[in-house]
User: What shape does this take?
Amino acid sequence: MAEGSAKKTDLASSGLNRAFRNPIASFLAGFRFLTIIPISWNSSKDGEFFSSSLIWFPFIGLLIGSVTVSIVSLLMGILPVSLLTVLAMFLLAGFSGFLHLDGLADSGDGLLSSRPRKRALEIMRDSHTGAMGVIVLVFVILGKYAALSSLSGTFFITALFFIPLAGRTAIVLSMAILPYARSGDGLGRLFYSTDSRKVAVLGLLFCMIIAALLSLKYLLFVIPAILLTVAIFSLWCFKKLGGATGDTLGAVCELTEFAVAVGVVLVSRIQ
Assistant: This one.
């Protein structure tokens, strides 16, 4: 037992080093977790590389955005923006198997309940979605639709390209800020390591570089949207739950995507 625990601790504490030593295995472990695209090569070793895969989360978000933009661009001029928005939202959520929307709904049930910490965590583990979860889910989806469908042309494409990158960056930032809230093992704990803060800095820098390449205005409006969302939601999670769970990490991804979509709307209005 002690040997197994020591091995687990060693794997968790060397996340960044393992990412540099085994970039392909680390990338694929994260890619298989964050998407439903079937790549089976070396999948049996994913458990060893979950903590080191965290550094790839923003890049995987960028890939999801790039594929979504490629598909939507083929239909621009054929379908109206409203239908393109629905298609884009389906693709962005579908590539991850709707994992983060599920986390958003579960987080809504737990965080908006009047129950104490322990009971709130139990509610979030329940596979049934309650009224609060449904309400949060509907409002975020409607908000994201309203923001994206109000955009057109380059702004619409830029939003689709950038928001999945921002969402996965938010996951990394949240893990750097918050401890894991549940006792014992959990899915979210597999990704924690002593390098979480270093990875968060690298992820944020990557996100800032992409934003700056798009336009300085995106750097000024979009990056604060990410940081503000993560800060407010993390504070709420810490006060209510004592930290993060797999569900709240999914929730912060969805909330950040919504916030960044609004940020792009603001950029479009100051042109």
Q: What stands out?
A: Residues 1-13 have pLDDT under 50 and may be disordered. Residues 54-269 form one domain.
